[in-house]
Amino acid sequence: MKTRTVYQIDSFTKEKFKGNPAGVVINADGLSPDEMQLIARELNNSETAFLFHPTEEGYDAEVRYFTPTTEVPICGHATIAAVYAKALESKMDSCVFRIKTKIGILPIEIIQQDGDYQIIMTQGKFDLSPAFDTETSQILLKALGLERTDLDERCPIQIASTGHSKVMIGIRSRKKLNKLSPNQMELALLSERISCNGYFVFTLDSGEEETLTYGRMFAPAIGITEDPVTGNANGPLGGYLVQNRVVSFEDNYVEFNAKQGEKINRLGTINVSVTSENNIPKEIKIKGNAVVIFKTELSL
């Protein structure tokens, strides 16, 4: 029997019980995939991150991510949580911490200030699929409870990804965003057809000078009815907005704040930055705060 150190951390906030909760197992060496899946199910967060020591040069830790029902290749808020927990546990100074994930090795910046940390995640390669056809769009809108008149005409319905894809659906109204009550079964069935599990509905109707977008994310096919604040949705959103020229930018760079979680009282803020080349996103980063909810030991 071995003791594992387990954190529960809220990402993209400094206020406890806001933002997006993630489990983190600091010393996961020796755990089997079945054991990790059971731990993730027990903690019952949208994702739990497991940190392993490196087995070769070129990175500082390997991280694997599990929802309550399945392993996923990458997760934004759980990465913020995992590196934040590691920084606290090891009393780290500001540095670049390289993590090996299913989508490759990612550099994560740790910013130490007054005994606390901010984490900046460089995401994976940005990819944007063609816009949905009329039939698929109509199935999606029906499942979300939206009409075509609700859509922001600047925003085609497309799948965007920095390693874990999301469908981008831009709508006109923040009020409408918070009224959504999707048909989760229909969304899960559509995921099989389009090979994408996440649906990110967003609006530029923020009503706040310091905030560009508000969003909500649904992924019932992988056991997530609604995710509070999603790094792997808001990061790709930045690339999507740039490539579709929805936002203006200077010197091939744009930075903005995105909020999510308002409807479910878990509001959090993600800072998104996009560096582009010839209007094509080349590097996407998300920056966030985090706060510890609890730390405990698990004997297994």
From TrEMBL:
<feature type="active site">
    <location>
        <position position="47"/>
    </location>
</feature>
<dbReference type="GO" id="GO:0005737">
    <property type="term" value="C:cytoplasm"/>
</dbReference>
<comment type="similarity">
    <text>Belongs to the PhzF family.</text>
</comment>
<protein>
    <recommendedName>
        <fullName>Phenazine biosynthesis protein PhzF</fullName>
    </recommendedName>
</protein>
<keyword id="KW-0413">Isomerase</keyword>
<dbReference type="InterPro" id="IPR003719">
    <property type="entry name" value="Phenazine_PhzF-like"/>
</dbReference>
<dbReference type="GO" id="GO:0016853">
    <property type="term" value="F:isomerase activity"/>
</dbReference>
<dbReference type="Pfam" id="PF02567">
    <property type="entry name" value="PhzC-PhzF"/>
</dbReference>
